[in-house]
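User: Okay, second chain of the day. Same drill as before: sequence in, structure tokens out.
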Amino acid sequence: RMLADLIGRSGAAVVLCSSAYFGIAHFGVMAMAASQLVNLPFQMVVALCFVRRHVAFRWREVPAALWKSAVVTASSAAGPACVVALPHFSFDLSIQGTLLALILAALGWLAGVLMTRHPVVLELRQAAETIGAASVVRLWTRQRLIADPRVGEAR
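Assistant: Same drill. Structure tokens below.
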């Protein structure tokens, strides 16, 4: 665990510091944020290398396990990317633009999840059933309280 942290954090520090040193003059904080596009996949590969010591899997199994999540990610990002592209590729969005990007991201996520039959659909269905059951119980209790105001009183 410590070796994985050492390798991952050292790589992250090199990428972050070099982006700060070389990119801060022209791009500022955006250069440091963009450096995470290099850093995060690197840390994922390091983590997978150490996980393989304990869990037997082949490297070619990783894309097979993650393709649905990649499609969901792409469908989530498509709407906000279009919103950013509309006003001359500017990230300075108005409140309305931000809300539109948020709504499009949520709709894209839902479409991607349903289109790929992602495993999270089972969790969403279970949550909806739980919330629905709780709503029915609350509604039933509320109707019962309205019909008989003495329900729930201490006797």
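Confidence is low (pLDDT under 50) at residues 151-155.

User: Thanks, on to the next one.
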